Amino acid sequence: MDRVRIGILGAGNIAPLNVAAYLAHPRCDVLAVCDNREEKAQAAATNWGVPKVYTDIDEMLADDDLDAIEILTPTMLHKEHVLAALSAGRHVSVQKPIANTVSDGMEMAAAALASGRTLRISECNFGYPPLVKAKQLVTQGAIGHPTMCRIKTVVGKTDTAFQNGLDPSGYTWRFNDQSPGGHLFDDMVHKYGTALWLFDQDITSVQAIVRQAPAFFEAPTAAIWEYERDSLLGMMEVTYAPNMNMRSSFYGADEFFEIQGTDGFIWVTRCTGEMLDLAPLIVYHPDGSTTEYPDIESRWDSGFNHSGTAFIDALLDGTPDPEMTPDMAIKTLQFCFAVYQASIERGPVDPRTITGSASPPWWPPDLSNYFNDMKEYGSR
Ligand SMILES: NC(=O)c1ccc[n+]([C@@H]2O[C@H](COP(=O)([O-])OP(=O)(O)OC[C@H]3O[C@@H](n4cnc5c(N)ncnc54)[C@H](O)[C@@H]3O)[C@@H](O)[C@H]2O)c1
Question: Based on the domain organization, do 343 and 194 belong to the same domain?
């Protein structure tokens, strides 16, 4: 393949971040955009300089000029859209989470294998330079054998142009029974996927406590997990701080990652936001010295740019996409549902046993008292 001619399905909130890399790639042509809301499709086509506009996926898939499809529709539609694009012979990149159930993910993975086309799940954390460098350092043995992975996620409030520009309709399907869970499903899949990807190790057991917070939040949450190698463990916490201003250029959230090894430490001190006045990546070496990486590219959208470029480069070179494979996306989903399940059962859950899905007992949330619930949060 000399160039990749791509069509974009779904021109909603996250589309501009996903499409930027395709528009910038010298050997990629964004030829079409499709959204069932015609005004969205038209506006996106105008902004991006895209020649063809569709409002129906089948019409776009009938367009023989397209080699690949980027799927950016709500998660509950991923399976239907991925299967359609694969059976039309297109290579596919689909946003995370792969699907709403593990069995749907498995069906999509099998369809991709049978079609001989690429199906990759776009995971911006796998392109985020501080995390990419951290993984490289772990693999090179810079901190010896990793023994503990700790991931913190905090959501607060923010007033960024990005957040204020979001179309609220993009949230309705996340807050009701069209989704199997809330924030721990929609956002934490990034962190579950990262916990798997950093070490190339399967997770064999998960324990968790998940509490309900307003709207789709599930906080505070604490989880611990075991990897195949029994000298490596993981843990995470998720908190919601609605009255705390988050320093960010995007969503009002941030993450910190700490990887302890037998010989040293790695800290990734930011991701979605820019809360801490610390270098984005810090390494503590076996001899007690420290290397800081203050200039490493660390804006959150850089992860999207590298992820998009990786998809095009892999198609052009005919090499495997370095991003999330369907197999890893399925394990990520199993990990996600194991957190819910472990909290319900108050005991360890082997994620590999999950073939369907799991939800918090209160899901979908009752939003009728949304504003009161937000006000009262923290006084419970
Ligand atoms: N990587 C990240 O950090 C990140 C961030 C946000 C969203 N996402 C993922 O991206 C996907 C989209 O999220 P979003 O926030 O942009 O949602 P959104 O609701 O804002 O956008 C979805 C778009 O798809 C369109 N659409 C719906 N059904 C369609 C159909 N049948 N045919 C054509 N278009 C259709 C909608 O009109 C809408 O414009 C989700 O899977 C979400 O989990 C990932």
Answer: yes
Pocket test for ligand 1, best of 9, 13, 56, 179 (most atoms within 8 A of CB): 13
Residue nearest to atom 2 of ligand 1 (CA): 124
Contacting residues for 198 by C-beta, under 8 A, at least 6 apart: 131, 134, 135, 138, 146, 149, 259
Round to whole Å and give the CA distance between 314 and 366: 44
C-beta of 53 in contact with ligand 1 (< 6 A)? no
User: Counting atoms of ligand 1 from 1, which one is nearest the CA of 80?
Assistant: 31
Q: What spacing in Å lies between the alpha carbon of 157 and ligand 1's midpoint?
A: 22
Residues 155 and 272 in one domain: yes
Dist. CA 12 → ligand 1 center (Å) = 5
| Residue 208 CB–ligand 1 contact under 6 Å | no
Reduced to 3 DSSP states, what percent helix, strand and coil does the chain have, rounded to the nearest 5? 35, 25, 40
Q: Among the atoms of ligand 1, which is closest to the Cα of residue 167?
A: 20
CATH of the domain at 180: 3.30.360.10
> Is 186 near ligand 1, meaning CB less than 6 Å away?
yes
Q: Is residue 135 part of a domain?
A: yes
Q: Say if residues 192 and 206 touch (Cβ distance below 8 Å).
A: no
User: For residues 373 and 378, what is the distance between their CA atoms, to the nearest angstrom?
Assistant: 10
- Report the atom number in ligand 1 closest to the C-alpha of 173: 19
> 82 in ligand 1 pocket by Cβ < 6 Å?
no
Q: How many domains does the chain have?
A: 2
Whole-model pTM? 0.97
3-state secondary structure of 241: strand
pLDDT digit string (tens) for the chain, length 380 residues: 899 999 999 999 999 999 999 999 999 999 999 999 999 999 999 999 999 999 999 999 999 999 999 999 999 999 999 999 999 999 999 999 999 999 999 999 999 999 999 999 999 999 999 999 999 999 999 999 999 999 999 999 999 999 999 999 998 999 999 999 999 999 999 999 999 999 989 999 999 999 999 989 999 999 999 999 999 999 999 999 999 999 999 999 999 999 999 999 999 999 999 999 999 999 999 999 999 999 999 999 999 999 999 999 999 999 888 789 999 999 999 999 999 999 999 999 999 999 999 999 999 998 887 767 766 675 55
Rounded CA separation 235/226 (Å): 9
Question: Could you tell me if residue 26 is inside a domain?
Answer: yes
